[in-house]
Design brief:
6 helices; about 220 residues; alpha+beta; four-stranded antiparallel beta sheet; Phenylalanyl-tRNA Synthetase, Chain B, domain 3; 10 strands
């Protein structure tokens, strides 16, 4: 079995917003092209059900998105301008736009996000240096996001390693992104609602990574 790695949350964050948890999954894999089996399942079963569950609901009423938007507001970022990644995906689902087909890991990542309403990030552990902490970004801090130019992350809650910021519930960095060369994966589920059963979500997420991303030596934990 792969081992858990040192992960912490800056305790000062709870003074501003107490409902902060992170769920982590770590596994080994060979990253592949998206599979037809996976996308048949998504398009025929998952996405129609997600659309049905969103009918006539505002974003503030959708579990997962609701807590994330509240956390953004608490830390001084406008969730309408700096959109939660799960909300961005769900907006595509609501419009009947095709979701991006990236690779076997990232596609499962997005399956978890649209079904839970929570932002989910997948990272190449070989590109992460040292321990991982969730903390608030300072003025001037940011990074080049995946498919985006430099992102100003001031006051956002960020995953940080010895080399700096690399992940958030809005957009992740190119430095630690999963590619076809990735073999050791770390998945982070950003949860900002206490009523969500994060342990149950981690178990179903592991099953999805095993089935659709050939995950091996898989383990999970919550902080």
């Amino acid at each position: 079995m792969t081992n858990q790695i040192p992960t912490t949350i800056d305790k000062n964050l709870y003074q501003t917003y107490p409902e902060i948890r992170l769920g982590f999954i770590r596994f080994k894999t060979i990253v592949k092209e998206p599979s037809k089996e996976f996308w048949d399942y998504m398009n025929q079963e998952v996405l129609p059900e997600v659309r049905k569950n969103m009918e006539n609901k505002s974003w503030a009423e959708i579990e997962g998105v609701r807590g994330s938007r509240n956390a953004y507001k608490a830390f001084g970022r406008d969730p309408g301008r700096y959109r939660v990644s799960s909300e961005a995906l769900l907006r595509r689902v609501r419009r009947n736009d095709e979701l991006y087909h990236i690779n076997s890991v990232v596609d499962v990542n997005n399956l978890i996000s649209v079904t839970s309403g929570l932002s989910v990030g997948s990272y190449d552990l070989n590109k992460i240096k040292g321990d991982i902490t969730l903390r608030k970004a300072n003025a001037g801090e940011g990074y080049d996001g995946i498919g985006k130019k430099f992102l100003d992350m001031e006051n956002m809650l960020m995953l940080v390693d010895d080399e700096g910021l690399f992940g958030s519930s809005t957009s992740d960095s190119t430095r630690t992104m999963v590619t076809d060369k990735t073999t050791d994966v770390l998945v982070a589920i950003y949860c900002f609602e206490n009523n969500i059963d994060l342990e149950k979500l981690l178990e179903s997420s592991k099953e999805a990574f095993i089935k659709y991303a050939d995950a091996k030596d898989i383990t999970s934990w919550i902080i």
